[in-house]
UniProtKB/TrEMBL annotation:
Function summary: Occurs in almost all aerobically respiring organisms and serves to protect cells from the toxic effects of hydrogen peroxide.
Cofactor(s) the protein needs: heme
EC supergroup of this enzyme: oxidoreductase
Name the record gives this protein: Catalase
Record keyword 4Fe-4S present: no
Stated family: Belongs to the catalase family.
Length: 725
């Protein structure tokens, strides 16, 4: 029988402590001098990084070990949801590619899209500050194409070899498993400073992009540089873009924090609710294109995943659209078992020497084997719609039954011969004959070494509102770092981007906003350059709409049924979602004798909070307002309205409901409200819309305010913080 002490002694033999003196080794004990760069071909004469080499044993081991760290939950992107839909080409891309999925305007390609957070576990909340995954599986007639991207166009690292490190740094710290699904801790920000290449990405992650209002209102990016090859065998470099028709919108930070506790499934429920109500999310799909001749024409390397291709230099060519129109039938089999590989492409789509993409192509297939087994591509959600014919056999959970007496090639029956290579044949995948020459070295070319200019470009291109939000996000995150070395260093890094930004953050968290040289010995000053397509305000919808927007209608016994009916019917006509919120979720009587004067609310005031809706409407009815100001519920009602105002949401009221708005916003200047007396006129200021009685004019004005998503003028004029929400 083994004693406890003997057990601990045995454990101690397998315990070691991280220290500066213990040098890095592989799992088989060999010291390697470089933990940052995959072994690759490098042409120093032409300043070109070539393909990463599979012969690198240390890189393979590091990626393999990382891929197999979690069973069965995804190591990253564990928290997610998805839906099915269709993809259509509206303007053929045949001049650039032979891929029929991108050229055939008569096709309707089925797709599955999975949205996710990155850092949190499966049980974490939807609305945490984080990058969002945006992965599209195209079930094409030529095979599966997986476009595995994010809602942010750049990434933290340039070389895939660093991927385990950035995720380890972002995940809960190893000594206490804290915090869950947050980057507000020492290790994450230590990594951000120690890797200057992450500077651009952490600016995006601290922006409003990291707290989206809805998956339906997120952009999607392929992130990596891919290639397209046309029927003539000509190649171009591309980046893929998905832009939501509803516009790009976000939560405000206080709203996101509260939702994480009040409704941790907010985003997945929002997506399912919209599809169930027939408000199908839609995106425009496009590419940025750089010819081979122009590959080296920029001051950045187009293969660098930490850089965007500024749209004033490389415009987006939109040529297709897709929508999500069917929810899954079972979450586990269709969403949790959905698996993606960046290496899954179809004829006409290819890879570049993007160092991050090269490593992803190696890693993803290995990851799926770890989670789902060698036959993961036979699962229904992952299976191609075209015939699959090869000699792969056996393995765990094999579903396919293959008849015949040969399982090899070549064979005496000439069964399943390889397709004949043809440049123009859209059914056959041909590897582009790219020239590769250079020396083996663990390095990247000089253009990969500049890390500040695009961070400046992004910050400069944001609106004043977005810049303020980014400053506040940095102040929040760094406030949670208790190691002064960490936050003082980050303030120094911010000074390289913008002195005003650094000073603002330094004042809040400590540190000195002084410029310091980067890794290449240069000090950056902000030149003020901007570019389109970086601010969310660049993607306002062409036609603002209330479709899919949730509008709370707060009522008590004696409410005005004509006002409620008008708002409900008007919302239904435009695809909006009305939610009756009562003092109780049992029948509530309206005034008068209308058939609709008795209703059962969808929720009561304690069951649903203002954070879960896009706008609030208070109809008239003297008795209703008296019921809403009874001591038992008055505090919650006023909190609803003040919180909605503080979160910049549209607020509407008619008749006696105006008095409730007036009390909730008492002390906030510049809010003009209608008078209830006969002859009073409609009033609208800072997204607060009131009218003495319900009318089409009121509905139009109220809906216009809702369709703007947020009333940011409250924030810029300092009104949103004047109520205690």
């Amino acid at each position: 029988m083994t004693s406890a002490n003997a057990k601990f002694d045995d454990m101690a033999k397998n315990t070691h402590e991280i220290s500066e003196s213990a040098k890095l080794t592989s799992d088989y004990g060999v010291h390697f001098p470089d933990n940052d760069n995959w072994l690759r071909v490098v042409d120093n004469e032409n300043g070109r990084a070539g393909p990463s080499l599979l012969e690198d044993p240390y890189a393979r081991e590091k990626i393999h070990r990382f891929d197999h760290e979690r069973i069965p939950e995804r190591v990253v992107h564990a928290r997610g949801t998805g839906a099915f839909g269709t993809f259509r080409v509206t303007d053929s891309l045949s001049d650039l590619t032979k891929a029929a999925v991108l050229t055939d305007t008569s096709r309707e390609t089925p797709i599955f899209v999975r949205f996710s957070t990155v850092l949190g576990s499966r049980g974490s909340a939807d609305t945490v500050r984080d990058v969002r995954g945006f992965a599209i599986k195209f079930y094409t007639e030529e095979g599966i194409w997986d476009l595995v991207g994010n809602n942010i166009p750049v990434f933290f690292i340039q070389d895939a070899l660093k991927f385990p490190d950035v995720i380890h740094a972002g995940k809960p710290e190893p000594h206490n498993e804290v915090p869950q699904a947050q980057s507000a801790h020492n290790n994450f920000w230590d990594f951000m400073f120690m890797h200057p290449e992450a500077t651009h990405m952490f600016m995006w992650a601290m922006s409003d992009r990291a707290i989206p209002r809805s998956y339906r209102m997120m952009q999607g990016f392929g992130v990596n540089t891919f290639t397209l090859i046309n029927a003539k065998g000509e190649r171009v470099f591309v980046k893929f873009h998905s832009t939501p028709v509803l516009g790009v919108h976000s939560l405000v930070w206080d709203e996101a924090l509260k939702l994480a506790g009040q409704d941790p499934d907010f985003h997945r429920k929002d997506l399912m609710e919209a599809i169930e109500n027939g408000v199908f999310p839609k995106w425009k799909f496009g590419v940025q294109v750089v010819s081979e001749a122009d590959e080296h024409s920029f001051d950045f390397d187009i293969l660098d995943a930490t850089k965007v291709w500024p749209e004033d230099l490389v415009p987006v060519r939109y040529f297709a659209e897709f929508e999500l129109n069917r929810n899954v039938d079972e979450f586990f089999t269709q969403t949790e078992q959905a698996a993606f590989c960046t290496s899954h492409v179809v004829p006409g789509i290819g890879f570049s020497d993007d160092p991050l993409l090269q490593g992803r192509n190696f890693s993803y297939f290995d990851t799926q084997i770890s989670r789902l087994g060698i036959n993961w591509e036979e699962l229904p959600v992952n299976r191609p719609v075209c015939p699959v014919m090869n000699f792969n056999r056996d393995g765990a959970l094999r579903h396919k039954i293959t008849k015949g007496n040969v399982n090899y090639w070549p064979n005496r029956h000439n069964a399943h011969p390889p397709a004949k290579a043809s440049t123009a044949d859209a059914q056959v995948y041909n590897d582009y004959p790219a020239k590769a020459a250079g020396i083996k070295a663990r390095t990247l070319t000089p253009k990969f070494r500049e890390h500040v200019r695009q961070a400046q470009l992004f910050y400069n291109s944001l609106s004043a509102v977005e810049q303020t939000h980014l400053q506040n996000a940095l102040a929040f995150e760094l406030d949670h770092c208790d190691d002064s070395v960490v936050y003082e260093r980050i303030v120094t890094r911010l000074a390289q981007i913008d002195s005003g930004l650094a000073q603002t953050v330094a004042e809040m968290v400590g540190g000195e906003a002084k410029e310091a040289a980067d890794g290449e010995g240069s000090v950056s000053t902000n030149q003020g350059r901007k570019a389109p397509g970086l601010s969310q305000f660049d993607f306002l919808p062409e036609k603002p709409t209330v479709a899919g927007r949730r509008v709370a209608i707060i009522i008590g016994d004696g409410f005005d049924p004509s006002a409620v009916d008008l708002i409900k019917s008007s919302l239904a006509a435009e695809g909006g979602i009305p939610l009756l919120i009562g003092t109780k979720r049992s029948p509530i009587k309206g005034s008068g004798t209308m058939r609709s004067s008795t209703v059962t609310p969808d929720h009561h005031l304690e069951g649903l909070r203002s954070t879960m809706v896009d706008a609030v409407f208070v109809p008239g009815g003297k008795a209703s307002i008296e019921a809403l100001i009874q001591p038992k519920v008055k505090g919650r009602v006023l909190h609803w309205l003040r919180e909605a105002f503080g979160h910049l949401k549209a607020i509407g009221a008619t008749g006696e409901g105006i008095a409730l708005i007036e009390e909730a916003l008492h002390g906030v200047p510049s809010i003009q409200l209608s008078t209830v007396e006969e002859g009073g006129e409609l009033a609208q200021s800072y997204g607060v819309v009131t009218a003495p009685s319900p009318s089409k004019e009121f509905v139009t004005t109220f809906f216009e305010s809702i369709a703007q998503h947020k009333n940011f003028d409250r924030e810029t004029d300092g009104l949103s913080t004047m109520v205690a929400y």
